[in-house]
Write a structure and sequence with these properties.
Layout lengths: L3 E7 L2 E7 L9 H16 L5 E6 L17 H16 L5 E5 L2 E3 L1 H8 L2 E5 L3 E3 L11 H22 L3 E2 H7 L4 E3 L4 H14 L2 H11 L6 H11 L1 H11 L14
Parallel strand pairs: 2-3, 3-4, 4-6, 5-7, 6-9
Antiparallel strand pairs: 1-2, 7-8
Helix pairs in contact: 1-2, 2-3
């Protein structure tokens, strides 16, 4: 089977699966190029309320398939950054479901997701120092925002792998699950996400990512959406809320 990104939607959750098992799901140049385009449809599809990124089989992503990156290192790195930025800009909650290796470009993609759930036995590494590559400034800032400058320097300076418990302690992952429990927990958590207010989630995502100039915009969205009134009514009536606001199909 050709290396590819597989896409499907189930119960309001879009899932992107990295499929290149012969090379531990390393990303080819074509896969890097395809990710931004692939994300365009679920970004504006009102039926999609969350996105999961995962790898086929027992590993998440071992980085970039260097054999397919025959251009200059700078151009190859640009492909990865564009894919990372497209994932980070996705307007709905994103979750990386991680087994096995999450290394190099794989760690770059995982860091671009809002949340990261990992299975025991997963390992993580940011490895440009092994290749003499300058890690992009945007990717470095994103890593620092997750784990702090000391751990970011440890990972970047050494290129060494860390295990899932250490990744959890440093903030690189949000939950570590026993073997065999990852799929169940991700399904359970995404059911929670899709039941919550997209308005709250979209605003919180912008604010958490540093867009602190958008209070007036989101206040306007809230006043027009009816989500607050619905949330309060549902609480008082002791029923699940039926939130109506969804990410606009443009802008």
């Amino acid at each position: 089977m050709e290396p590819q990104l597989e896409y499907r939607v189930t119960d309001s959750v879009a899932t992107v699966v990295i499929r290149h098992p012969e090379k531990r799901n390393a990303m080819t140049a074509a896969m890097w190029r395809s990710l931004p385009t692939l994300l365009e449809e679920p970004a504006v599809d009102p039926a999609v309320r969350a996105l999961v990124l995962t790898g086929e089989g027992g590993t998440f992503c071992a980085g970039a398939d260097i054999s397919t990156l025959r251009s200059s290192p700078e151009e190859a790195q640009g492909l990865a950054v564009r894919a990372e930025e497209a994932l980070a800009a996705f307007p709905k909650p994103t979750l990386a479901a991680i087994r096995g290796h999450c290394v190099g470009g794989g760690a770059q993609l995982a860091a671009a997701c809002d949340l990261r759930f990992a299975e025991e036995g997963a390992s993580f590494g940011v490895t440009p120092a092994k290749l003499g590559i300058v890690y992009p400034a945007s990717s470095t800032r994103r890593l620092v925002s997750l784990v702090g400058p000391a751990t970011a320097k440890y990972l970047l300076f050494s290129g060494e792998l860390i295990d899932a418990p250490r990744a959890l302690r440093t903030g690189l992952v949000d939950e570590v699950l026993p073997e065999g429990e990852l799929v169940k927990r991700v399904a359970e958590f995404t059911r929670i996400l899709v039941a919550r207010s997209q308005l709250t989630q979209a605003a919180a995502k912008e604010f958490a990512d540093g867009r602190t100039d958008r209070d007036a915009h989101w206040a306007g969205q809230a006043s027009r959406s009816g989500d607050t009134a619905e949330g309060v009514a549902a609480f008082l009536e002791r029923r699940p809320p039926r939130f109506g606001w969804s990410v606009p199909t443009s802008g």
